[in-house]
Amino acid sequence: QAQKAKFLSDVENELEELAVTIAQARKMVELIKGAATKEREKVEKLFAEASEVLATFHKEVTGFIEDGERSMLGEAEADLRWKEERRAKLAQCKQNLENVPSADTIYFLQEFQALKVAMDENLSPALSFQNELNFTKCTQAVGAVKDVLSAACKNQWDHLQGKGMDGLSFQETEEGACSPSPSAQRSPRHPPSSPCRWEMPAVAFIVDLDSDTADKFIQLFGTKGAKRVLCPIPYPESPTRFINCEQVLGVNLMNRGNYYWEVELIDGWVSIGVIAEDFDPQQSYNRGRLGRNEKSCCLQWNGQNYVAWFGGFESVIQQPFFHTIGVFLEYSEKALTFYGVKDSKMTCLQQLKVSPFAKGQFDPFQNKINHQFASLFLCKLKPAFFLESVDAHLQIGPLKKDCVSVLKRR
After folding, report:
1. Is the pLDDT score of 217 beyond 90?
2. Within a 10 A sphere around the Cβ of 240, how many other Cβ atoms?
3. How many separate domains does the chain show?
4. Average confidence score pLDDT of the chain
5. Position 286 in a domain
6. Which residue range is the domain that position 244 belongs to?
7. Which of 11, 131, 221, 259 could form a disulfide with 205 if both were Cys (CB 3.0 to 4.6 A apart)?
8. How would you list the strands of the sheet with 258-267, edge to edge?
């Protein structure tokens, strides 16, 4: 009986303990449900707000395109009408002059005078596209937003799953690029190619063209595009403007650390490089061109080959044409490397860096590099571009994100 009583007592205690734990478990279940419901509501609200932001951005961008089209199209159509009317008038005057009988001197002089007046009429005003924001950069802007959103979603999803951030943590800098956290600065020095701002180490460099340096035969499209034209553009006077070479500089300065940017070669002969900030833009054509002096260097596409230039010396590069050129400047290492970029592959076209000769070898171009290239890094440097042919056309960026995995393995 005593054992039976003790057993029943133990069961009773167990039942009471289970009742308590069941009550606690019920509270936990309700707590989890409540927390999940609140979190779901907050997430739905945030997604709705994000959708509203995207919808507003969509409306603003499409409106920007429409406004740009309306403004530029109106001016272009008016210019076209004026030229067509002028051509028709000149053609009619010419026809009238040809139909005058050779003996009718007075009538001939009248028609000749009419033709001369028509030819002497003032030309139509120059198009002012270079003074307007160019709507063709919308694709680049929206593409950058899409890439940022895609990268953000992937990174945050990995974070939620506990995968971390690949050991890297970046903070945005004042210049719009991103610099790695102290723990990430121990990673190898190689240029990234992702347009996602928080995936860009400090070397990812945002280049904007400086309109105050553009030669009068270079038309700018926003701050990213440049094309050489036949008719001079009436830019305002500027002490930094090139006057003898069809060149333009980036507004950004480079004086420490590492920098990487990419340029699309759209058409023509183009040179891409760097130049000292204190370079005189009024130098003669022979001395003012990129790479023909000790204050600049470049990679040139001449329609057949790539050619590296420094100090008036050249090095021909036997590589196929690449539409995208990556430029990697390592300021502390006093090195400049040019890459051909295609898909997820980066091909080193030329590296400019002091390097001793192997025994029995001598290269005039490398000899010039060895003697004077390092002094270039005593200056603050700027990205520089030379549009050599009349049809030359280039576009800066955006970076190719497919190259990220390639660069991480280097």
Report:
1. yes
2. 14
3. 2
4. 79
5. yes
6. 203-356+363-402
7. 259
8. 218-221, 225-228, 393-396, 258-267, 324-330, 335-342, 345-352
